Structures
1.
Amino acid sequence: MKHKIGKLAALGAIIFCSASANAGPVLDGIAESGELRACFDAGYMPFEMKSKNNSYIGFDIDLGKVMAKQMGVKYVPVNTAWDGIIPALITGKCDLIMAGMTINAQRNMKVNFADPYIIVGQSIIVNPKLKGEINSYKDLNDPKYTVTSKLGTTGEVVVKRMLSKAKYNAFETETDAAMEVINGKADAMIYDMPFVSIYAAQNSDKVDSILEPFTYEPLGWAVKQGDPDMVNFLNNFLRQIKGDGTYDRIYDKWFKSDAWLKQIN
């Protein structure tokens, strides 16, 4: 009986290795290295941030750790400047982008996206002196107003497309863009609703906000083009964690509680 069990175990290992070797280039690479390397740009609350002890925390980070655990590999965070994050993926510095990236046609020409894992939209941080004067993004579409956003984001795209009459200043980080409003150098900032909601709550004595999103933006995980097996894996993983309650638990931790703020303040 021991010999039969040994033979069956060996056969199972051979079948597993054979399946793994044909799972697609990205999945094969992850299995071979024993690592899931996820690219993101730390600073996008509450998706990916750097804590006081210099570790990375956030909604995407937790999802990545669950994914790696289910794959049986180590989660490796790859903090990358936003304007270089797609090139980093394409050149193999990471296996996928888990960075609150909005799915759009321009990006989809360079990478493949899995199904959206969360829906957000653009909201507004407003200088308190304009309370009552600015009630929607349309009110900002005027040369007398200065608007900020983060370079290379959908916030910037929205400003250029929908607020073309306003003066626009771009910044490397969303925090710098928001600080312009606090410092009185800008009238408003256009950016993703989760960041606007949290930042406005943290600085309620310094800024006002219009939280209701005025755009529809699905966020998705991105992988190299030409690997449908990895996209299939991501979609199935997402369905699984949404079905077993894991997704809701992580979502509630980062979007329905502010307990995590003490880790970054």
2.
Amino acid sequence: MLARFLDLLADLRAVTPPDAEFLYDEATPEGALRLGNLRRYLELAAGATTLLVGEAPGWRGATITGVPFMSVRELTARPGLLTGEPDGDGFTAPPDPAAAWELSASIVQKACRSWPVQPLHWPVYPNHPFRAPDRATNRAPRVPEVLAGAPLAVELVRALDIRRVVAVGRKAEHALAAAGIAATAVRHPAQGGAALFAAQMAALGREPV
């Protein structure tokens, strides 16, 4: 069902600029771990009806775990955030992570906790854009980058029969619009937007889909 999505993800490697990092390279231990976690996440989130689209992975979160809006702290939560199982969700934690948690991941996970059906999380640009040469930084993805990544969101909508798309921030909203996907926009939680983001997400979680 997601074979084309995974093919598109692999193809993204060929158009990764020097100041961005392709995260899902099976030939490296780190990339294989991230890809394994992503596959497990997509398996657990297969019943989602809403796709929550952010901008790009942050160096403290998905860049380490491979799972959008999930840092090591959420990845290793007991019980599991997604299944509630006492032994967790079946993810693999990296042996020596560069960071243990990410603020945006914590805010997003908390905001989604009350939803009856958890939304599927995905970044409109799946590579990690950084301020060269320091990979332990984040930068905003450029227009060509988000346009290169947008087809993956399109494929998720198609393959999983997603009924509603929510864009976290204007950059994600504009990229989705350019790809032909209409999205409900919510405030990005960064830079003082956490309270408004939480309120908007709570309201969306109460709406039927």
